[in-house]
Amino acid sequence: GAGVSQSPRYKVAKRGQDVALRCDPISGHVSLFWYQQALGQGPEFLTYFQNEAQLDKSGLPSDRFFAERPEGSVSTLKIQRTQQEDSAVYLCASSLELGSSYEQYFGPGTRLTVT
Amino acid sequence: QQPVQSPQAVILREGEDAVINCSSSKALYSVHWYRQKHGEAPVFLMILLKGGEQKGHDKISASFNEKKQQSSLYLTASQLSYSGTYFCGTPTTSGTYKYIFGTGTRLKVLA
Fold first, then answer.
1. Set of chain B residues whose Cβ sits within 8 Å of the Cβ of A102
2. Does B99 touch chain A if contact means CB atoms closer than 8 Å?
């Protein structure tokens, strides 16, 4: 069956540009997570959605980062005025269950390079 | 506080065994294990929900010592396909949403 998909797979942005990263979770999955993974590091939590509600955004590194999931399915992570330190792989994961105690299914990620 | 994994890296020959440890300074409410191959997304291996629980499939198993705030992943008779980076992961507190991954263990299996 269809897994989690993300687009674009690769994005190059000039410093100061805005970017939008899309995540299509598995159909019916209520939970959606965004992570940032720097080279050679583990994924770091950014934010969590339960359906359309953003219940935890404690991991967003600055107010330049914004995420939404308006209809409880597709989610978009937006980064405004990108900086070089934003370069990373952005992973989206979805889960059938509520909360973070259950299996997460990850998408392939979007590799963002800010030049 | 991020769970600390040990060893940081390990190289095995096919057929050898390995143990990867995950230790937390805070209470672990559940422990998950993921494997990530280079350039790919993490893939779920197993979840341990209760202290004392042990699970396994194929030649990969895990244990969870809730009192010691530790979990271990056991890889027996390793195969080339086991190569990758292994992460333990856990919710930061019971019933919460924020999720945290361990420091990671890079494992390479040689023929």
1. 47
2. yes
Q: What is the number of domains present in chain B?
A: 1
Q: Which of A10-24, A36-50, A98-112 has the lowest mean pLDDT?
A: A98-112
pLDDT tier for residue B30 given thresholds of 50, 70 and 90: confident
Per the structure, the complete domain to which residue A68 belongs is given by 15-100
For chain A, the domain total comes to 1
CATH number at residue B34: 2.60.40.10
A54 domain-assigned: yes
Using CA atoms, how far apart are residues B43 and A29, in angstroms rounded to an integer? 17
CB contact under 8 A, A43 and B30: no
A77-97 pLDDT, tens digit each: 999 999 999 999 999 999 998
Tell me the pLDDT of chain A averaged across its residues: 95
Residue A3 falls inside a structural domain: no
Cα gap A43→B90, rounded to integer Å: 12
Measured between beta carbons, which residues in chain B are less than 8 angstroms from residue A31?
Answer: 97
Cis peptide before A8 (omega within 30 of 0): yes
Question: Quick check: B86 contacting A, CB < 8 Å?
Answer: no
CA dihedral of residues A89, A108, A17, A32 (deg, nearest 10): -90
CATH number of the domain enclosing A29: 2.60.40.10
